[in-house]
Design a protein that fits this description.
CATH topology of the largest domain in chain A: Nucleoside Triphosphate Pyrophosphohydrolase
Mean pLDDT of chain A: 90
Helix content of chain A: 25-40%
Radius of gyration of chain A: 21 Å
Number of strands of chain A: 10
Order of helices and strands of chain A: EEEEHEEEHHHHHEHHEEH
CATH superfamily of the largest domain in chain A: Nucleoside Triphosphate Pyrophosphohydrolase
Largest interface: A-B, 41 and 42 residues
Shape of chain A: globular
Number of helices of chain A: 9
Structural class of chain A: alpha+beta
Number of domains of chain A: 3
Largest sheet of chain A: 7 strands, mixed
Oligomer: homodimer
Distance between the termini of chain A: 48 Å
DNA sequence: TCTTCTTATGCTCGCACTGAGTATAACCCC
DNA sequence: GGGGTTATACTCAGTGCGAGCATAAGAAGA
């Protein structure tokens, strides 16, 4: 029987003032996701993850979901060794990380994903030409067209619609065209700068953000990231931060109220303008609707 | 560094005359999914999977997607050993399995999932009372209500809507209430009978069916299971088989044509009634729509 | 040939939801 | 009170969908 070294990684997401953020710890080669080993007496992978995250960061995780298992040769510098890593997504409200850990803004790692203030310039200035050059590599024939079409789909060139969920596909395409390097190394003029992260940990963050953006639209996961009561604008800002797009305020309000996702508490909160009513998540919605979520443009 | 035995499993899905089916091979303890070991020189997990499936079943896989990694202690009879299994979903049109393999009807394994001819009686006759008894175990208080609510959500009791995607949640709840046993063993009057499968392979099938039903609604995966040209009724029957629900014929037609998912070829096929036009998948839809899929009731 | 059965295809209501925008309310500060 | 700010209510047009009616085009049998 063959065996491999098995590791676990946690992409722990919370939301700061303006953007989603992931918990990272410092490592020799840039920042790293909290990682651990599976111990012989961990009954389940989930429990192992919770255990070592508690040990390393003093954080008690709430929502936890398995993301993906990475096992390609060459994902770690040592070519001989295969490291199998099971990555998890975890959500938490906690905002005070322990000593050697810190929150890292997701959009520092993946700047092309934030469209709240419009389409990032880097897409048309850097990515578009790079994808075109990459398509030209294989000639103007079939293969080139397929490459161009793939670029159009994931980056929404030529009037194709932007799909916020395709975070991982964008990451992988950027990697293929040579605009980003996986392991920390010298960044050049032809790569998109970012905070260096260990191994393929940035890819794990991309996987997590994509999954989260998808789940947003059909499961009430946002409420894992909010306090028990909140104003509708707080909820909206949170959804916008995760989805990476701006939303129409009145329609957002109508959506969550008519979907009966939230219920008013009667209390209000001072805001600087007219006081806002405080709402709470309405748990009963789980039995009423098949896919209770918040609705962003790409959920149709 | 800790290490574990690592296996790969493939849930290979095709669609027969009336139902989705998975490829199984015979094993000492009932049927088993094709499984393999990761070899040291397999560059990626995908490639390893394709390699051993080719060796074992002489099948060349098309669409392949990682499903989930199973690693709980106790999923295999030997309590000491931890077996980590990375399960994959694969789609294929091939209908002739090799010697020791055969196609097994998904709804023989998961009979409560097929609602095409109405809600299966087993849900209200067997599952409902069992869930109620299970809820009563913890008293009529908070815990009991939570259990009952969970039953309502996943099995659509008390007017809750049926959500075809929650295959795995249903499987897990049935397991918790004691209506099915994971490893092959004596079935009793209080368990739902089914074909015995090795280890937790039936759980893997449930995972695969759930994933497939979800993907159906936002990616054109059905066409992986169809010949190049097909009639709209063939397409509809296929979607119905996977989704486990019956669809309105005229509306289905309108949906796929207006979404521009398919295009007519001009040819027709004899059917027993008026000849049907043959259609093909319209690849350009990938750049036009963010989530090209077929639309089933739970996709809203 | 005429009838009946079967499948395919076209079309039309009515409802629900959505995008976009206008209008009004309720607080702050000065 | 005026102006800024945020909250909340409401309207209107377009779109998508569930449900059903109607017609077309073949096969099979009387």
């Amino acid at each position: 029987m063959s065996s491999a070294v098995v590791g676990l990684n946690a992409v722990i997401v919370s939301v700061g003032d303006t953007a989603p953020q992931v918990l990272v710890v410092s490592s020799g080669e840039g920042w790293a996701l909290p990682s651990g080993q599976l111990a012989a007496d961990d009954r389940t992978l989930d429990l192992a993850l919770r255990r070592y995250v508690r040990d390393q960061t003093a954080l008690e995780l709430g929502y936890v979901e398995q993301l993906y298992t990475f096992g390609d040769l060459g994902r770690v510098p040592d070519e001989r060794q295969r490291l199998l890593s099971v990555a998890y997504l975890a959500l938490t409200r906690a905002d005070e990380p322990s000593s050697n850990a810190r929150w890292l803004d997701c959009y520092e790692l993946l700047p092309w994903e934030d469209h709240r203030a419009g389409r990032p310039a880097v897409l048309d200035e850097l990515v578009d030409p790079a994808v075109n050059a990459w398509a030209d590599e294989v000639g103007a024939g079939e293969g080139g067209e397929a490459r161009r079409q793939r670029g159009d789909i994931v980056f929404a060139f030529h009037d194709a619609p932007w799909d916020g969920v395709r975070v991982l596909e964008r990451y992988e395409l950027l990697y293929e065209v040579g605009l980003l390097t996986e392991a920390p190394g010298p960044s050049s003029a032809t790569t998109i700068d970012s905070v260096p992260m260990r191994f393929d940990h940035r890819r794990m963050v991309a996987t997590a953000l994509g999954r989260l953006r998808g789940k947003l639209t059909y499961r009430p996961v946002v409420f894992e990231l909010l306090p028990d009561t909140f104003t509708l604008l707080q909820l909206q800002r949170l959804v916008e931060a995760l989805a990476g797009v701006a939303l129409h305020k009145q329609n957002f309000r109508r959506l969550v109220e008519r979907a009966r996702l939230v219920e008013g508490t009667g209390d209000t909160l001072q805001t600087g303008g007219r006081p806002a009513e405080l709402f709470r998540f309405r748990r009963e919605v789980l039995t009423e609707r098949p896919r209770p979520g918040v609705g962003v443009p790409w959920s149709l």
